Structures are given as C-alpha cells and as structure tokens.
Fold this protein.
Amino acid sequence: MQVHDDGQGGADAARGSGISGLDERAQALGGSVTVDSPVGGPTVLRLWLPLVAERPGHSLPWGAPRVTRI
C-alpha cells in the first residue's frame, strides 16, 4: 500500500511513535514500512505486507503458499 499526502514534508520517525509503531507491527507480520518525506515536498509512506505472515515458532497453515519477496 502506498499513501501520499500534500503537506510540507519533513516527517521525522525519531520524533514520535506513529511511524516507528507502524514499522514494528509490519515487521512482526514479515513486512516493512518506508517513508520518503523531503522538506517542502509531499510525504510518501509505503507499507508492504506478505499475503501470508510467518512468525518465528509458528508454522504456516496447511496448504498455505510461502511468500517470496522479489
């Protein structure tokens, strides 16, 4: 998923917990978050999640496909 806004940019993941919290949740599901937020330009947030999450210590449901990032 990709989200654009038309604000002034300059988002700082270190300042708050929103972006870092989203990233932690995405990683727990085997995904990732990237943020591009140049000062003066729009912010673009990209969230990538696999269709099937595989967590350490948990097996995939029977017949579930494995997800490979290319």
